[in-house]
Structures are given as C-alpha cells and as structure tokens.
Prior knowledge:
Residues 1-31 form the signal peptide. This protein is an alpha+beta fold and 448 residues long. Helix content is 55%, strand content 6%. It is built from 17 helices and seven strands. It has helices spanning 2-26, 54-65, 85-94, 106-112, 116-119, 122-138, 144-162, 172-187, 197-214, 216-228, 235-259, 269-279, 290-321, 323-337, 352-365, 397-401, 444-447, and strands spanning 68-73, 77-83, 101-102, 374-375, 380-382, 385-387, 392-396. A hairpin with a 3-residue loop joins strand 1 and strand 2 (77-83). The protein is globular and about 60 Å long.
Amino acid sequence: xxxxxxxxxxxxxxxxxxxxxxxxxxxxxxxxxxxxPTPLPLLGNLLxxxxxxxxxxxxxxxxxxxPVFTVYLGPWRRVVVLVxxxxxxxxxxxxxxxxxxxxxxxxxxxxxxxxxxxxANGERWKQLRKFTLLALRDLxxxxxxxxxxxxxxxxxxxxxxxxxxxxxxxxSMLLAQATSNVVCSLVFGIRLPYDDKEFQAVxxxxxxxxxxxxxxxxxAYEMFSWLLQPLPGPHTQLQHHLGTLAxxxxxxxxxxxxxFQTSGPxxxxxDAFLLKMAQEKQDPGTEFTEKNLLMTVTYLLFAGTxxxxxxxxxxxxxxxxxxxxxxxxxxxLIQELGPGRAPSLxxxxxxxxxxxxxxxAQRLLALVPMGMxxxxxxTTCFRGYTLPKGTEVFPLIGSILHDPAVFQNPGEFHxxxxxDEDGRLRKHEAFLPYSLGIxxxxxxxxxx
Length: 448
C-alpha cells in the first residue's frame, strides 16, 4: 500500500514537471519586451488580473510598470498593454501600420474564424473594409438619405414611448430596436416592427453576446480558452446567441439571393456584396465569398445595434441624473429649432451644447474600455522595446477617455470641457471613443 502511494506521488510529480516544462517551452522569450509582472506556470498573471475586473487590474499594474508593460493572459498568451493618451496615440497613430494586425477575441474567433470586415487581417481586411465603407456611403450613410432614415426611425421610437402614457418602463429594448432598424435598413433593406417576436429575439441575442463577452466568465475564457473550450459552461449559451444572430443573417441573405439580379442597382449592403461576388466569381482568390458576406453583415448587425443603443441609453441616464443639463439641452433645442422639429446634420453647428453633452456622454461611458486587440505585423521598436511580429497589443481606450493628464476630473460629467470660451464645440484629440488608427471600423456606423 505504501509502495503504491509512493509510486502515485512520483507519477504526480512527473506529470507536474512535464506540464511545467511544456509551459516554459511554449511561453515565448521575453527578449526586449516592456516590463511586467512575472507569469506563473499554467496561470500566467491570473493572480494580478482577476476575471471580471481585467480592465481595472491592468490600470493598477500600469501604476507600477508604467504606460507600456507586458502581461500573460494564461500561460501562453502574451500581451503588451498601452495605457494613456500618449502611448496609445504614439502606437496606433504614429506607427499605425506596424500595429495594424487584428488581435484575438477568443469568445468570438471560433464563430468568425478570421472572416468578415472586423475579424479579417491583411489583404482580406483591406478589401472588405474598403467595400463596406463605400457601400454604406453609397446607401446614404452620413448623407441626407441616411439622415432621413434615422429621423423616420426616431419618430417611430417617440410614438412607441408615447404609448406608455407616462407609466414607468425600461426603454432598453426599444432603443436597441430603433438603432437596429437603422442598421437593418442599410444592410438588409428592411424595417421590422417593435412587437415582432423574431426581432426581439435578435436583440436579446445581441445583448446576450455582449454580456457574455464582458462577463467574468468571458474574461476567463480569453485567458484559458484552450482549457475551457471543450468543457460545458456558459460559452454554450454564447454560441446559442451567436447562432440566433447568424440564423437571422442567413435568412435575410437567402431572401436576397432568391430575387437577386446583376443588372439592378444595390438596394442595401447585401445586394452590393452579391453584385461584387458576381463580378469576381471567376477569380479563385477573391475575398468576396459567401462566408465573408455572412460574417460581415452579422458583425454590422451586432455592433451597430449594441454600441449605438448602449450609448443612447447611457446618455438618457445622464440627463435624468443631471436635470440642469437636461434643461439646458431642452432650451437650446427649442431656441434654435422651435418646438417639435427634429434636428438634422445641418443644425449641428447651431447646437453646440447638445453636441458637447453627446461627446461627454461617450467619453464618460468609454463603451469599449479595453479597446480592440491588435497584433504587431512586423518586428518593430517602440519606446526602446523590441516587439516581435505577432505580439498582441491591448490599447486601453478607456484610459485615454479617463486620462487625468488630458481631462481634468475625468470621473465627473462635465459637458463644458468640449466647449471653447465662445461656447462653440471644441474638438479634442483625446476624444477617441472608437479607437484610433486604420482599424477604426467599429465606429463607422456609430459616428454617422
């Protein structure tokens, strides 16, 4: 019995040594990387970075290691973190090409698999980004046509609010549906009624996806996807949400394919993509494939719905929290537009305070505080460090929007910081709610 216990102990020790040696073998050499906490075998920097509080943990480490440092998310995922306006702008603005690779989002990468406008890299990304921008602009985004589309949807939203007849209600679903309808009009050429059950399920799936990504489990999955992926857990629910979004997208694409004509003008993004597919069908290397179509429009549906809807909801909460700001916005709208008239893009210069409130709401919200993961496209020097090709980079966008060196008292809601001495809107180079550099596609729809 004692001999068996001894052998069991020796076997356990051998297995542990094997795991440790594999970990050390697979962990890339630090070389001339920025400093950071020493990673533990198998755990990486888990002791310093608790899932669910990853962003705050990275900010805390920056106080010890400076604005550029290295961490390990799990045993093998090495990440260089950029904190503050100067570091992020120097990288994504000054060395945009070197930092232009798309990083990893383990919670979504299995679904998108490097396809679509947001998850692609290299030449595929360049072609899809150029196409998406041109298609959206041709369909009226940022122009009078897009403005009229938004105004009509806002009118429908106001009418839905009025039907509550003053009763308390949660506007989250309606706000998300209104913003999603604008996206659906551009992408699929459709508008869905707010009481449509399928439409409500799509919104709930988009919301569930966002919550899953940002949850403690989602952050743990980013660190240990290699371990958690084959196990049962919350990621099965996330896959269900993504499946709902994909099924809706596939349904809409199939409807387009059934009535598609190469001679007709593009009525929406799907039509434009199908036209491009038809034009390049003889090219074996074309990036205009059905998978890239499905992944592009799925991303536009998800991101356009959740980012804009969440921003509007937060702005409304701030107006409730600060009634004096709400009153001043109301007075400016009535004075400049008169009662009952919807604002247009041409009115923007006449509504500086309202514009400043929207800027400050986006700054304070910092909707994507971690920023989008990037990778180094070629070995490069940055601030005296050598970053090998393939190194992941986290530019913490929230650290720019809340940087006390740039925004005085950054935790306070103060729209006046976006106004000059004459009361006109003042542009701020640190106002980067949708990141910086050539990968700013997240904010394409949001800004317009």
